Amino acid sequence: MSSPKQIAIVGGGPGGLSLARLLQLGDKTHRYDVKVYERDLNSEARIEGGSLDLHVGSGQVFIDRAELRSAYEAVARVDGGYYAMYTQELERVWHMAVPQHPEMDRYDLRTMLLDSLKPNTVEWNHHLLKIDVVGDKYALWFKHNQESPVYCDALIGADGAFSKIRAHIAPAMAKPTYSGVTLIQGELLHPDTQCPKMLSRLHRGNMFTLGSRGRHFGLQQKTDGSIIYYASFKVPEHFMEEKYGIHSNEQVDQAVFRLAMLDIFEGFDPEILDVIKATDRLVVRKATGLMYRSTLEDRWTNFGERKLPLATLIGDAAHVIPSFAGQGVNNAMMDAVELAEELLKDQDCAMAFSAYEQRMLERCTRAAQMTEVFEDAFHDEKDNIATTTKMFAKVGPVKLDDRWKNLLD
Ligand SMILES: Cc1cc2nc3c(=O)[nH]c(=O)nc-3n(C[C@H](O)[C@H](O)[C@H](O)COP(=O)(O)OP(=O)(O)OC[C@H]3O[C@@H](n4cnc5c(N)ncnc54)[C@H](O)[C@@H]3O)c2cc1C
């Protein structure tokens, strides 16, 4: 039975840190020496993105297995579970409170996970560049030291949607594909002065507006009081570049970007357009899926010979799914739960990886399918209001406003 001692987890996002926590907690015989290699300079690095809600059947399963319930409850915001849906003219259709879906900021989540690990588990400023196979070990080469690598016996890629390790394990499944929806992320740092009326609509939670031509504009308040919004619409992959000269991953003139957004959301209520005008920072985030529209299993099983036998992937590295149903972080944490369970059994490491991958594929295929339903409803060009309302009615007790009270009949 091969029993690796040194396990390297590359990527200190929710997936990688959750796995490290569970392995350290459950490994009573000190079988493993777990290290996490993260490219961020230190634990204070800013983490982009809105807050996250850990679902009862997945993210919160991790919380309990990791014995972090009280730390989680100390930072999770119950008022973050408020949702309201509006038309593009800002007429409210329904609202609801789902207290079992509290929101947690990404930074708070990382801090909670880091605090749960043994000292020096995470090696910061370790940006993986490449991997070599040396005998029965892997040599990991990092950017800051290209003279000598770090060695490990088994490797777990938790390095996110654009994983380097994925390409090493299986070159044929290296690239996520565009889902058909472009997502723009906007931030307002001082909404109390920039858009106080909109702020009051959020009730410290979430609101979204659905408009004609399948356009969606959703806002969320974070713990520090700032607002993050995601605006999304169905367009060809290179629409933002071709129509407005706006490229992903590049410094973009923010004034030009705001004008582009005003053009895209033309016809929305002036209060939404004022939010766009007041936005501090806009970024393009195209919705991508590695295994999208039911191709998940195909991508994992049909990629030919596996190049690194004692390596596997978790989180977005394994199965990036667009964010429309809030599945990403929850499945990253369930990956950690299931992989830790398999690694802590008395079985060969390759068998543990294979058993985990089977479980992960089944679960994430369901998550990808659910995401497709949400994505289609939000961007439905004919009847996004009715389809989205019906979908949310399955999530919680939607309270329809008077004019819409027959919407669910
Ligand atoms: C716009 C948007 C909105 C989202 N909203 C939600 C939501 O509401 N709910 C939800 O559940 N999910 C949401 N997600 C998805 C969620 O963010 C991810 O699914 C989740 O963060 C995945 O966790 P992870 O640990 O697998 O990857 P990541 O969070 O991406 O972490 C990967 C880590 O690896 C590090 N890394 C990357 N490359 C290297 C390298 N070469 N060497 C060393 N380190 C490396 C990165 O710095 C990072 O810390 C959203 C995603 C996007 C883009």
TrEMBL record:
Alphabetical UniProt keywords: FAD, Flavoprotein, Monooxygenase, Oxidoreductase
Entry's Gene Ontology molecular function annotations: FAD binding; monooxygenase activity
InterPro entries: FAD-bd (IPR002938), FAD/NAD-bd_sf (IPR036188)
Domain of life of the source: Eukaryota
All copies of domain FAD-binding, residue ranges: 313-344
Protein name, per record: FAD-binding domain-containing protein
Organism: Absidia glauca
